[in-house]
Each structure stands twice: as C-alpha cells, then as structure tokens.
Q: What sequence folds into this?
C-alpha cells in the first residue's frame, strides 16, 4: 500500500454541459477546474501536478496559468482519466506532489476549439481498417458485440436493458442531456447504426468538461468536503486496432480489474456502486464480465431484470452515463465525478438518486477500440 494514501477532495463539471456552442474546449475545461478546486477548498496556486489527455499538459497549464512540477499526458482514450487517478495517487504516495489536478473536456457536439489531430490516413486504422469499410468506433465495438452474441447467446434485448437503466438514472439527474422516458421496445425500434447496435445502444455526443482534485489523506482532512480514499487501481491494454484484439469478447479489464481489487483488498461483493464506461451498451456488458462481477458470457443475464436500474441491487452508472447523461468524446473522468458524489452522499434527501449507504465504489474506463482500461476502487473516509 502507498506510504501516503491519496484521496479525491474535489470534483466538478463545467458550468454548462450538453450543447454549448459559445464556449471552446479549453473554456469548458477551465470552468471545470475552477469548480472542482472550489469544491475542494483549494486554488490554482495549490496545484503542483497536472494530468491531461487530448490537449498537451503544457497547453492546459498555460491556459490555466500554472507551472506544475509533475505532469502526465497518458492518452489511452476514455480510460485515460482513471489511469491518471492511479498515477496521481502514486505520485502523492511517493511525495512527488501535494495536489493533483485531472482535467478533460471537449466541445464534442459544437466542435469549438478542439485539439489538433493527425490525419487518420497516417495511423494504423487509416492504413489497415478504414479502407476496408470499418465505420469507426461503432463498427469496431459492434463487431466485438456480434461475436459475443454468437458465442454466448447474448441478446439485443439484454443490451437494451442497459440503455433503459441508464435513462432511468438520468431521469433522476437534472443535468442529464436525455431525460425522456425510455422502454426496451423503444430501444429495439430505434434505427440501426452498425448491426447489432441501434441508435440507442450508442453514447451521446455533447459538449462538457470535468475535473478531479486529488491530495493526501492528511491534507484532505483540513479541506471542505469529506475525502474519498483511493484504495487501489490497475491499468492495461492489449491492442490498438480492433483487428488485432486477441479476443474480441474479452478486453483488458481482465488485467486492470484484478490489480485494482488486489491493491484495494476488497471483494466484488463489497462494491456498493459502480461507474463503468458506457460508450456503447456492449461496453458495459463485457466490462462487467472482464472485471469479474459475473462469468464470461453471463453479462446479459447479470444486467437484466432491472438489476442495474434505480432500486436494483447493483447500482450502475448512476448519473445516466455516456448513454443518457453526457459524452463529449472521452467519458472516463465523469465516472470518477459521479462515484465521488455518491460516496460523499451528495444526493442525500433526493430519494433513489442517492445510493443508500454507499461506502465502496468502483470506476472503470475503456479507451480506444476496447483497447485500454483503467480501474480504481474508492472508499468513503
């Protein structure tokens, strides 16, 4: 275990999320940073560690006007920020930094001030997959899902249960982008995007940013909010492009999950609330299997019957997730934000919005084409 245990002490989104055409990506990030620091009772001058993906740490630091002495630009898609959480905890444990800031946001819908990117034709996907008709992320994930359905008998109705549960949680969240009622039949009636995925199997595209502040447990005790300790974390990846995935029914959560649980010293039954990246409904299903909450091939049964919906015995993606709450491009940071709020009891008095007696939480991010994962176990202090 770390010699100086780390704790999350502040989390926040940008002032506005959803459709925000009047603000750039960096403006959204700046708002999230100031809001998260205010949540913690800290200021920009306190930050000495910066963790980003998408924009370079130098660009974000310059925009914020800070000069961190430790920085990490690990960029493995939507899992980056859960990986950052583990890296920040390690840096705090070793005494390298006192206050870590993790930030990410994108003008994913309005496309204002996004970071520059290399031409896809220069990359592996551009050379070896796109010319043969692979329709981006929906195509890659749907191919993996189709194999899972063939191999294990997973049904589109079971996938629809995930979308419906997410929407039920979103209806309890005033900031969620999609809050209209949703039924399994409506999911199954939505148009195909890439078989077997229908439109409502796919995440939103929004504008949003989020930020997370981490420090030592000792320092955390003097701050505004109850700290949430980082008990354990893990990370893993086993491919970049989907055609090179060793087994499309099993992702690198099988690597990051056991490491996180072993470091934390907790069991699956100890987890009170889980926030699992839901870029697509299938991402949730296969992640739960890889993390060990059920056996491979049993994910469909695990998520069925309202089990992961409000009032169910496995509270999952309690903000509404990427399917109904927000998804600016890389969602992983929002899994941390929601989990912290649940463990702090921020929603007390709001009925099912608050998971009762939540003490242990799991966050899990997936990046790329099921390529990389980060898993962390958190605990209310």
A:
């Amino acid at each position: 275990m770390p010699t100086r245990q780390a704790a999350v002490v502040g989390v926040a989104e940008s002032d506005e999320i959803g459709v925000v055409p009047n603000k750039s990506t960096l403006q959204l990030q700046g708002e999230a940073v100031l809001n998260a620091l205010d949540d913690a009772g800290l200021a920009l001058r306190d930050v000495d560690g910066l963790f980003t993906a998408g924009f370079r740490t130098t660009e974000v630091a310059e925009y914020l006007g800070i000069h961190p002495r430790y920085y990490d630009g690990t960029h493995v898609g939507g899992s980056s920020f859960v990986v950052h959480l583990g890296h920040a905890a390690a840096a705090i444990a070793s005494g390298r930094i006192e206050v870590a800031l993790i930030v990410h946001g994108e003008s994913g819908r309005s496309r204002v001030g996004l970071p520059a990117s290399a031409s896809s034709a220069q990359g592996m996907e551009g050379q070896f997959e796109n010319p043969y008709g692979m329709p981006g992320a929906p195509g890659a994930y749907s191919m993996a899902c189709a194999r899972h359905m063939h191999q294990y008998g997973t049904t589109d109705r079971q996938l629809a249960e995930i979308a419906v549960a997410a929407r039920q949680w979103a209806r309890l969240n005033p900031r969620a982008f999609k809050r209209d009622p949703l039924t399994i039949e409506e999911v199954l009636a939505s148009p195909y995007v890439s078989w077997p995925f229908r439109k409502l199997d796919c995440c939103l595209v929004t504008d949003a940013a989020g930020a997370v502040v981490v420090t030592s447990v000792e320092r955390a005790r003097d701050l505004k909010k109850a700290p949430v300790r980082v008990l354990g974390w893990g990370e893993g990846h086993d491919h970049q492009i989907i055609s090179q995935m060793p087994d499309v029914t099993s992702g690198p959560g099988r690597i990051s999950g056991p490491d996180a649980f072993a470091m934390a010293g907790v069991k699956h039954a100890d987890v009170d609330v889980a926030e699992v990246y839901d870029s697509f409904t299938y991402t949730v299903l296969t992640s739960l299997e890889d993390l060990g909450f059920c056996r491979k091939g049993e994910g469909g049964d695990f998520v069925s019957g309202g089990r992961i919906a409000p009032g169910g015995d496995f509270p999952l993606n309690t903000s509404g997730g990427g399917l109904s709450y927000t998804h600016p491009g890389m969602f992983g940071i929002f899994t941390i934000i929601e989990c912290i709020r649940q463990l702090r009891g921020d929603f007390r008095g709001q009925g099912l919005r608050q998971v009762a007696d939540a003490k242990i939480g799991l966050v899990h991010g997936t990046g790329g084409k099921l390529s990389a994962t980060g898993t962390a176990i958190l605990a209310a202090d």
In short: The chain is about 35% helix and 20% strand. The two ends are 16 Å apart (CA to CA).
